[in-house]
Write a structure and sequence with these properties.
Elements (H helix, E strand, L loop, with lengths): L1 H21 L5 E6 L5 E5 H25 L5 H27 L6 H18 L20 H24 L6 H30 L1
Antiparallel strand pairs: 1-2
Helix pairs in contact: 1-2, 1-3, 2-3, 3-4, 4-5, 5-6
Amino acid sequence: MKNLLLLISSFFISLIIWLSCYGSLPKRVIMHVDSVGSIDYATKSFMFIMFMIISFFILVVFSLLLLIERKSNSKINKAFAIIGSLFVIGLNIVYLLNAHNESLNTDSFLLIFVGCIFIVIGNYLPTVRYNLKIGVRNGASFKDKKTWNKIQRFSGNTFVICGLLMSCTALIPSFLYAVVTISLIFASMLFVIQVYSNKLVKNNL
């Protein structure tokens, strides 16, 4: 229940942020930027309604995830709620910053946010109990509960390190290069986790 309230609160926080900034926004604000840099504009009332609708549906998805996993580890459910709330609030703040200053590089905020999500996940992975739905799942993790716990702890630390590295990609000038770098970091993380998992199984043989 507390996690659902957190998600609901994030919607009203986003609403308050919009209302507090609405008067200072220009009548027409940025709506879309294509690959060549051309900008499409819309009225601020339209963008306000659109972002409230988008925020609502995102929170509905996260709420459904919480309801599906309501019998799972409560700390993991809390992580879902935190990530969903931060995502919605961050999405609205980043847009409003960009609407006030179109030259602002909001890509950096997005990259940092992705890194923060990985850090949050990494902090909660070690708390995941043995189950069939949530956590790092591979052939090794289901071998026994001891192996499961070791893999979740190792994966949690790996997620945190990768989250920090992903946040650092905000310093890369090109957003495309930053996305490629994040993809390589993510692939490397999965590879390291799998190598560690295979090593655990081999040592137990």
